[in-house]
């Protein structure tokens, strides 16, 4: 008998897109299908002398998020929880340590509960959803269910609420480790009340802080964003810089990676990296700050840029996994998105 | 001629006495008014034929034949004849019954509470039929499974626990009718729900045991199911 093939898989499909958006429009598009809703990593590559750097460095200083262990989904639908947290702030949550393409996962974002469940659970759950298109196979293995928690019809007295609550309570397999983040509309309320509430219910809650890392590169060649440059080369350079890979001036034996031309010599490049759990709202605020900055003036001032890259969660992908925004001195932003998935990409 | 006439008169005078004059006058007057019957008939017929002729294409013979037809006002058939031809009672055909919805149960109107005795009866029947205290502890449960597959489910409190269609999941009620493809149950809200057996999994409880029925295996009419030999099927995926 032959051994089953375990290494030679085809690479996942990827969809690379570049587009140009106006600066004042881009902020409206942040929590969207194109740019994603939750991010686990944010990287900013800022060349030149930036006066507001201290503000950016401290940006996520107090954005704590919580890890809740063994938390069943139906607790999210408790009338108390809905009225106190989901309806009175931005509540973002997602399951941890599950792979969207093989496991079941749940995401709460912008007031919507998305469940991605396997076939057997779907047939026992009792909530209608849509089959995920993974391949051309007729029998789908995964189903997506979406529930709008902020809907007026979704009140604890309504029939629909009772049905959803009953269905999720009966399903014991929908219990996961979660990461949660809550930002109240009312600034007088402390975001940590979420943790206090969950702790009171008897769940194990761990407070987490995003990790921050900063590096400054001196005297490096930085590519320019001209019409003739390929944006994916610049994205590659940004990625290399963020990972502390130095690009030699000329192709040499160890690395064929060089700085894309045309380029200029920059005195100082700030590389800021955050890792943690960021909602679209937080990413939007940071993007707003970055958009206001002026890129470093060069001889060819139009083509210099500042970059912010948002890295989405791989599991339960409904949006792009990487989104990189380049702001230039002009009104336009160059946006590069890459969507990687084993599923069929729409 | 004169002789003959005189003889006739003579003969008549022998048998008949002449009528008194006033009586003869009245008779003559009356006969004049009524006219002779045979003569009258012919006269009417002729008149009608004359009248109809220019209006139809039919010829005289045909018309006379038509006028000679008899239309009796009274049916002359005797009672005996009537009895010999027995009229069959008219029954509805199956198609007509189906069209009228005679096989269907009303959507509302059957009370869940009124079915409680039926359920009680069914539980008793099932307990006696399966004899669980003995059969459940035995090593070989094939006989038990056969009995479950062949049992009658009218009155059973069924619940859908798994289905390809999510809206059927959680439906719970007492079975009032079983057809080849469906279970028809009355829910606690006194509503009739028709649940297809295909692609659904049902459960029911008897005392401390819970049983699972795979609807896909039971796609048979209940009457036929009782006498059917079931094959064991290994896959239970919907």
Automatic annotation (TrEMBL), chain A:
<dbReference type="GO" id="GO:0000447">
    <property type="term" value="P:endonucleolytic cleavage in ITS1 to separate SSU-rRNA from 5.8S rRNA and LSU-rRNA from tricistronic rRNA transcript (SSU-rRNA, 5.8S rRNA, LSU-rRNA)"/>
</dbReference>
<dbReference type="Pfam" id="PF08584">
    <property type="entry name" value="Ribonuc_P_40"/>
</dbReference>
<dbReference type="GO" id="GO:0001682">
    <property type="term" value="P:tRNA 5'-leader removal"/>
</dbReference>
<protein>
    <submittedName>
        <fullName>Uncharacterized protein</fullName>
    </submittedName>
</protein>
<dbReference type="InterPro" id="IPR013893">
    <property type="entry name" value="RNase_P_Rpp40"/>
</dbReference>
<dbReference type="GO" id="GO:0000172">
    <property type="term" value="C:ribonuclease MRP complex"/>
</dbReference>
<dbReference type="GO" id="GO:0030681">
    <property type="term" value="C:multimeric ribonuclease P complex"/>
</dbReference>
UniProtKB/TrEMBL annotation, chain B:
<keyword id="KW-0819">tRNA processing</keyword>
<comment type="function">
    <text>Component of ribonuclease P, a ribonucleoprotein complex that generates mature tRNA molecules by cleaving their 5'-ends.</text>
</comment>
<dbReference type="GO" id="GO:0000172">
    <property type="term" value="C:ribonuclease MRP complex"/>
</dbReference>
<dbReference type="GO" id="GO:0001682">
    <property type="term" value="P:tRNA 5'-leader removal"/>
</dbReference>
<keyword id="KW-0540">Nuclease</keyword>
<dbReference type="GO" id="GO:0033204">
    <property type="term" value="F:ribonuclease P RNA binding"/>
</dbReference>
<dbReference type="Pfam" id="PF01868">
    <property type="entry name" value="RNase_P-MRP_p29"/>
</dbReference>
<keyword id="KW-0963">Cytoplasm</keyword>
<protein>
    <recommendedName>
        <fullName>Ribonuclease P protein subunit p29</fullName>
    </recommendedName>
</protein>
<dbReference type="InterPro" id="IPR036980">
    <property type="entry name" value="RNase_P/MRP_Rpp29_sf"/>
</dbReference>
<dbReference type="InterPro" id="IPR016848">
    <property type="entry name" value="RNase_P/MRP_Rpp29-subunit"/>
</dbReference>
<dbReference type="GO" id="GO:0016787">
    <property type="term" value="F:hydrolase activity"/>
</dbReference>
<keyword id="KW-0539">Nucleus</keyword>
<keyword id="KW-0255">Endonuclease</keyword>
<dbReference type="GO" id="GO:0005730">
    <property type="term" value="C:nucleolus"/>
</dbReference>
<dbReference type="InterPro" id="IPR023534">
    <property type="entry name" value="Rof/RNase_P-like"/>
</dbReference>
<dbReference type="InterPro" id="IPR002730">
    <property type="entry name" value="Rpp29/RNP1"/>
</dbReference>
<dbReference type="GO" id="GO:0004519">
    <property type="term" value="F:endonuclease activity"/>
</dbReference>
<keyword id="KW-0378">Hydrolase</keyword>
<comment type="subunit">
    <text>Component of nuclear RNase P and RNase MRP ribonucleoproteins. RNase P consists of a catalytic RNA moiety and 10 different protein chains; POP1, POP4, POP5, POP7, RPP14, RPP21, RPP25, RPP30, RPP38 and RPP40. Within the RNase P complex, POP1, POP7 and RPP25 form the 'finger' subcomplex, POP5, RPP14, RPP40 and homodimeric RPP30 form the 'palm' subcomplex, and RPP21, POP4 and RPP38 form the 'wrist' subcomplex. All subunits of the RNase P complex interact with the catalytic RNA. Several subunits of RNase P are also part of the RNase MRP complex.</text>
</comment>
<keyword id="KW-0597">Phosphoprotein</keyword>
<comment type="similarity">
    <text>Belongs to the eukaryotic/archaeal RNase P protein component 1 family.</text>
</comment>
């Amino acid at each position: 008998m032959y051994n089953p093939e375990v290494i030679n898989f085809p690479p996942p499909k990827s969809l690379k897109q570049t587009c140009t958006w106006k600066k004042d429009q881009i902020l409206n598009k942040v929590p969207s299908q194109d740019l994603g809703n939750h991010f686990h990593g944010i990287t900013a590559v800022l060349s030149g002398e930036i006066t507001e750097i201290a503000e950016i460095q401290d940006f996520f200083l107090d954005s704590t998020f919580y890890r809740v262990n063994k938390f069943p989904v139906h607790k999210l639908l408790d009338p108390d929880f809905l009225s106190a947290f989901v309806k009175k702030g931005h509540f973002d949550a997602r399951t941890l340590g599950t792979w969207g393409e093989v496991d079941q996962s749940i995401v709460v974002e912008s007031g919507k509960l998305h469940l991605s469940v396997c076939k057997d659970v779907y047939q026992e759950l009792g909530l209608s959803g849509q089959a995920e298109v993974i391949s051309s196979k007729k029998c789908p293995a995964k189903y997506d269910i979406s529930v709008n928690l902020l809907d007026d019809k979704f009140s604890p007295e309504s029939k629909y609420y009772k049905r959803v609550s009953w269905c999720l309570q009966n399903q014991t397999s929908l219990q996961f480790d979660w990461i949660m983040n809550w930002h109240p509309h009312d600034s007088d309320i402390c975001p940590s009340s979420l943790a206090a509430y969950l702790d009171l219910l008897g769940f194990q809650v761990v407070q987490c802080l995003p990790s921050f890392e900063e590096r400054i590169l001196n005297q490096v060649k930085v590519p320019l964003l001209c019409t003739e440059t390929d944006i994916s080369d610049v994205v590659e350079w940004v990625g290399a810089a963020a990972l502390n890979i130095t690009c030699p001036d000329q192709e040499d034996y160890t690395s064929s990676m060089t700085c894309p031309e045309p380029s200029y010599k920059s005195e100082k490049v700030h590389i800021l990296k955050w890792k943690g759990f960021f909602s679209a709202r937080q990413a939007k605020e940071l993007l707003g700050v970055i958009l206001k900055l002026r890129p470093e003036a060069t001889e060819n001032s139009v083509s210099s840029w500042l970059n912010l890259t948002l890295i989405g969660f791989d599991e339960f992908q409904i949006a792009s996994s990487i989104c990189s925004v380049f702001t230039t001195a002009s009104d336009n932003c160059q946006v590069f998105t890459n969507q990687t998935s084993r599923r069929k990409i729409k | 001629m004169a002789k003959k006439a005189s003889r006739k008169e003579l003969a008549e005078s022998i048998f008949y006495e002449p009528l008194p004059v006033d009586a003869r006058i009245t008779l003559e007057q009356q006969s004049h008014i009524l006219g002779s019957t045979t003569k009258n008939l012919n006269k009417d017929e002729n008149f009608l034929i004359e009248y109809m002729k220019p209006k139809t294409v039919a010829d005289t013979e045909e018309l006379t034949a038509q006028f000679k037809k008899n239309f009796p006002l009274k049916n002359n058939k005797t009672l005996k004849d009537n009895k010999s031809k027995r009229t069959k009672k008219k029954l509805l055909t199956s198609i007509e019954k189906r069209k009228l919805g005679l096989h269907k149960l009303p959507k509302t109107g059957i009370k869940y509470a009124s079915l409680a005795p039926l359920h009680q009866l069914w539980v008793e029947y099932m307990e006696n039929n399966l004899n669980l205290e003995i059969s459940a502890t035995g090593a070989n449960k094939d006989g038990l499974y056969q009995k479950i597959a062949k049992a009658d489910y009218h009155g059973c409190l069924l619940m859908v626990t798994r289905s390809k269609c999510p809206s059927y999941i959680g439906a719970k009620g007492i079975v009032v009718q079983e057809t080849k493809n469906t279970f028809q149950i009355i829910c606690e809200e006194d509503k009739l729900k028709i649940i297809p057996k295909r692609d659904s999994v049902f459960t029911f409880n008897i005392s401390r045991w819970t049983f699972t029925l795979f609807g896909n295996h039971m796609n048979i009419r209940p009457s036929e199911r009782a006498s059917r030999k079931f094959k064991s099927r290994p896959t239970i995926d919907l």
